[in-house]
From TrEMBL:
InterPro entries found in the cross-reference section: EgtC-like, Gamma-glu_amide_hydrolase, GATase_2_dom, Ntn_hydrolases_N
Protein's name according to its UniProt entry: Class II glutamine amidotransferase
MF (Gene Ontology): transferase activity
Residue stretches making up the Glutamine amidotransferase type-2 domain: 2-280
Residue stretches in coiled coil: none
Amino acid sequence: MCRWLAYTGSPVTLDELLDKPANSLVVQSLHSRLGAEPTNGDGFGVGWYDEHSATPGLFRSIEPAWSDRNLRELAAHVRSGTVFAHVRATSGSAVQQTNCHPFRHDGWLFMHNGFVDGFASIKRDLQLAVDPSLFPHIEGTTDSETLFHLALTLGLQDDPPSAVAAAIGLVEDTGQRHGVTYPVQGTVAVTDGRRLWAFRYSSEGRSRSLFRNRDVAVLRHQYPDNPVLHDLSDDTRIVVSEPLGDLRGAWLEVPESSCLVVDGGEEEILPFAPTVPVAA
């Protein structure tokens, strides 16, 4: 459906992540190796945090990432230690800026690769479950943005794993009551600018691909002559829909039905399962 990248570590220019790797996100927008579709040309977005504001910067466009000159200009100059980036292949919703990921609310960013099956038939029920104070902030028409606002409603800002579990549980419960066998598919990433949570889950148990980098210090020891590794800090963590390169041993698959938590260079993988909110 889509491809995405989440980065935390020492500040880098955006082009170091989006354009320079051999299998960069820009390359994946045109020639994805592991995606459901090889081409992800229905827009893109990038969000980043810096010292100027607690609210992350956000740039989204309906242009294909591989041909957007403004993205190249921006990426060569913006530096950040926390970056979310996403290239989109629509599953049916309109190609418009408000449908491009990442989505932002206050100091939070959210992005998704996958879909809510039968979304048209359950959209009304799901959006009625969104807190009334949050509902006006839904600007687009995607299932992903509705999922984000359900998670916000269910406590994302206090406990992201529990909130995402409840949001997905609500979607599954609603979908199955409408006859949808496998309502949820995909990977999700959430950050508050300091911590990162990445989820891999599908109702069917066959989720979209997701990888994380092996510890940089270990890789630097294994490949002492690789200059790229010497430019990365030891606390660098990159979570991606598919590996950015072919360096053997550099990428580890995030397990099915799990939540990866990254906090200051430390990481933990927890089991993940949806929970149906009591109100449902």
